Amino acid sequence: MNTSRRNARGEASLQRILQSTVQLVSRYGYDNTTIARIVRATERPASSIYWFFENKDELITAALENSYSHGAPSRRPWEEFKPERPLLEQLREELEPELRASESEDPLRLGIMLALEGSAANSKIQEPFQRRRTGAQLRIEAWWEAAFAGQSAVEAAARAAGVEWMGRLTMAFLDGHYISDVAVEDRDAAQRSTIVAHALAGAFEVMTGSAQHLVPERNPLTALPARPETAQTAPETPNLLHVTRALVAEHGYEGATMSRICEASGMKRSSIYWRYKDKDALITAAVAEPFLELLTPLRELPMTSNDWLQELSSALTKVMSDAHEHPDTVKSGLLLKLQRWDPPTSGGSAVLAGTASAEEQLALWFEEVLPAAQDKETIGVHLAWIVARLCEGLMLGSALGHPLASDAVAGILVPMLSKALEGWQSKV
To answer: Domains in the chain: how many in total?
Structure first.
């Protein structure tokens, strides 16, 4: 960006361009946020935009940097672990501000959306989000490394693996929160921070060796090998649905135009409209329905169980394994959930309603299977929230190229939820 021209043309005009660009990207994604759209939204001629910026990528990058600067939180999280203080206490203090929904999270949500959109993958617009995300990941890992430093019995190799493990689990919870929690009551944030703190403490106990029998047999940091997207569609139009899903993953909802869909599928527009009343109905069938199918194991948990933790662990293994087999389904489904349309698209609404329904069903299941305890309804809601956010956060990690072995993730769920339930019951 030319700063001398910025001063000459005025800060107010520049801010209008930057803010309008962020709003357009939030709605249309990278691919379909064009200079022409920005011109219409700002009521500024294209020449005034090119006065400041050489091209669209430079403009969007500056707009994202501006949104991060204006939405920066007042505190810097995960700054320092203090060995003289209890782990749980420090975890709660770090998590509670993070789990409150605020306007400062909007740029993070947008950054996740652009990280998922394939057409933006190699663009310089990724730099603002990736720089901040990498910084956050490093701070979290340094925080956990300091926690492990007090565990002299843990060997160096195990400590390194444990730091990465804890960093990824912590980031997965936060990513799931950024994706799904647009509004959060203060009391919910406080309760969730307590229960997540206990869950992470349970994982930490495994990593430090106090519960070795619970450590997954496979290396917990072994990423699954990349697999091509497999068919997950209705038999009558598999190519059409597969193509549509891939286009949404690459270009977002708006960028998956009917022209692109027709060209990629080899079908005429009239043939597509004979099957689906409009593009939204097609995207609902191609994206929303298969994405929600991934959550089926969590919907079909037995209402009576002698080992509810193992049942849940097996269900999560299936969810994560299926998610890895269908990367375009995960990317496009999360894009629909993240993209903010007003009014919302039917596909986006289906994903939001379906994931909320799965979480509600999971909460009811917890009420049925948990051992006798006070506040079973409340703890069921929060345990369901933990599982749902962990799932979405791990799905995001897989979609961005950082998958973890599904059976290892599921194995660690047992001590995490055991510790979370224990903490809730003791009200620590």
So the answer is: 2
pLDDT reading at 220 higher than 70: no
Q: Sign of the CA dihedral 98, 101, 107, 113?
A: positive
- Whether residues 183 and 109 share a domain: the answer is yes
pLDDT tens digits, residue range 170-202?
A: 999 999 999 998 888 888 888 889 999 999 999
Question: Which structural domain, as residue segments, surrounds residue 178?
Answer: 87-214
Domain shared by 66 and 100, yes or no = no
Euclidean distance between CA atoms 309 and 305, whole angstroms: 9
Query: pLDDT class for 428, splitting at 50, 70, 90?
Result: very low
State the amino acid at position 208 in one-letter form: T
The two three-digit tokens of residue 228, written as one number: 């091509």
Is a pLDDT exceeding 90 seen at residue 137?
Answer: yes
pLDDT higher than threshold 70 for residue 36: yes
Distance separating alpha carbons of residues 259 and 196, to the nearest angstrom: 46
Q: What is the DSSP string of 270-281?
A: HHHHHH-SSHHH
CA distance 127 to 1: 15
**Assigned domain for 11 exists:** yes
The pTM of the full predicted model, rounded to 2 decimals, is 0.88
In 17-165, the DSSP E strands lie at none
Q: Pick from 184, 199, 214: which residue ends a domain?
A: 214
- Using CA atoms in the order 388, 390, 392, 396, what is the torsion angle rounded to 10 degrees? 180
pLDDT of res. 307: 85
Q: Is residue 12 part of a domain?
A: yes
Same domain, 93 and 205: yes
**CA 367 from centroid of its chain's CA atoms:** 26
Q: In this structure, what token pair is assigned to residue 285?
A: 């069938």
The span from the CA of 87 to the CA of 355, in Å, is: 32
Distances from the Cα of 293 to the Cα of 156, 233, 300, angstroms: 41, 10, 11
Boundary-marking domain end, from 170, 186, 214: 214
Tell me whether the omega of the peptide bond preceding residue 343 falls within 30 degrees of 0, making it cis: yes
Closest CA to 193 of 382, 415, 364, 356: 382
Looking at the structure, tell me whether residues 207 and 134 fall in a common domain: yes
234 pLDDT more than 50: no
- 19 shares a domain with 134: no
In a domain, 287, yes or no: no
Look up residue 98 and give its two tokens: 């993070």
**pLDDT reading at 418 higher than 90:** no
